[in-house]
Fold:
Amino acid sequence: MAWIDFLDLVQSIMDGVMFGATYSLIGIGFTLIFGVMHKINLSYAAASVGAAYLSLLIVSVAPTPIVYLIAALCGGVLGAVIYWVCFKFLPLNQSLATLMSTVGMLLVLEESIVHATAGMPQNYPAAFADVVFNVGPFVLRGDLLFVFLLGCAVMVALKYMLEKTKLGLATRAVAQQPIAAQICGMSVDKTNASTFIIAGFLGGTAGAMTGAAIGVLSPLITLPLTVKGLVVTVIGGLGSIPGAILAGLIVGGAESLFQFVRGVSERDIYVMLMLFVFLVFRPNGLFSVPGGRD
Amino acid sequence: MSFLRKNILTLIPVMAALLPLPSHSETREVKIYAFGAKSGVVRIFGLNSEAAMKAAAEQINKAGGVTLGDGSKGKLVLEYLDDRCTAEEGINALRRIASSADGFVAVGPTCSNVAEPVFGILQKKVGDASDTGLQFPVYTDVAAKGGLASMSQWAFRNVPSEANMYKSLFDWIKTNHPEIKTIWGGVEKDFAHSNATFNVMKDFATKAGFEVKGQSEWLLADTTFSNQVREMRRGEADLVMISAHPFTTCGALKEMQRQGVKPKMLVGLTSSSSVETLQGCAAQAEGIIIPTSFAPVTDDARKAAQAMQAVGASMDLHNAAAWENIFTLKDLIEKAKIMAKPETIKEDRLKMRDALASMKESYGLLGKVGRTEDREAVKPFLFVQAKKGEWTVAYKPN
Structure:
């Protein structure tokens, strides 16, 4: 391998790891809901992209940070709607019921975006798009670094929220022993709804960051993001927030590496093989959450 | 009086029955069926096609409609079916149209991956009793992958020949831009039209004397293009040609801007010469040259573009073909003496097929459209260039 090829290889992995920060943000949302309700919300990535689309309503009149904030708020609202429609009135002991309702919601959200925009790609504002850090022969994109740091900040904030606040205590209690939590006066319904709103808030941020990283929003990205989010959640360990962050970066890096080595048409095959390897040799993921009481 | 009040509801239908029947209107409805993607991520193609066909039909109807085989006047009525750009829905739509009592021709589909299987279910050779394929004329407006009409004698298309367009484009570049010697390609590998057209582009670029140094590949739903653009950067080519639809064209162009890849010239896919590209990345697409079979450069084209604007749509090479198809069908209905009656529908289908097959040229917004032996179109075209968020005419070769 020539020196320039080696440099390209390293740069590819770095780019992938940086872009993987968007997968991390999506993975956190999946894992947060799973951690609390032990349910997979398959419409999560579609809602995240939907929230980013909604923020476009103010893109011509508001500065970029406000657009991102609106995306986050819209994500929270969509999270509440998804909880209300897909979970609240469904028998939660029937695991297929919520799985299918969220698949339905995914399709509804995707088609709503398509109908609202006729499927046309929409320009999305990027933060620090012109900022580039040169580290020796390598280049780091400022916008992706921003997404990465945001992911880390979110992780710290969530950890604080889960460990130091009443809502966090209720969330953990409901996740571990819902009946006992109810006996202690905690509302399972309110706690679940709060989790969806918080996860939706994160999702809106993730949708905005994904749009910012690509520079364009399209309904085409909802399905790939859903798949990547699920892969990240499984590899990171269902219910583990640090696991989702790390797995997002690993999946992003691996995807870029496989593309560099084997080309675009084989890239996804190897990513899926990687998932199978994890499922066989480490089925609980990188940071599996221990069962029972903490 | 009280009797009347009590029984008024009963009397209304009786009185209605006693009234003289209106004379049978001389203007009949002539149904034109169309199908294409009106949902899914390429919904815009179907919406635009439908809007263009409806606007064209409205103009024809306002001007007196269409004269049918028995001398009566007909009013064109369009019914557009959604195929979601999927093969099974497309086949389903055409079968529904063929089973109708008033359908004698269909315009569509919008996607090449639908056109191919749809043409596959049509009878290959007219009159072949051993072939039980569908006997229904289809006149395609949008699906652009080359050579598809040769699959069946019931299939006709009014789409531009991309081979002619890119041959002409690279010859023009060779003559007018001698500073350009090398080319790098970018292709959306998993989309039939983009992939097939990329091979056409590469072929004619090489024949024109350019050195195609390599290509970068991506998929329709890809979100990151850093590897591909890095390859492009290493290629240091004078010209970058991108055969991809607007979403990934914009993604790749934005990444090129990030990595500082500034070729002397950009060339794009015909389908990207639309408002979508400018909406997604006008700044990054500045200067890109694309061959197209539509631009508002003739009186007819300007009027058609205005009619589209009036209904909130914009005209491009795809829906311009849809517009042209309706005017061509109007001429053919009159020429072939189509009756448009349920009892003559089978005969009308064959008449329409024969009329389409016998066309030597047809109506076009940029000028007459020639026809080939294998039922394809030879359309006038020009090269457009993105300038300050608008498509401007760069050169008109014919």
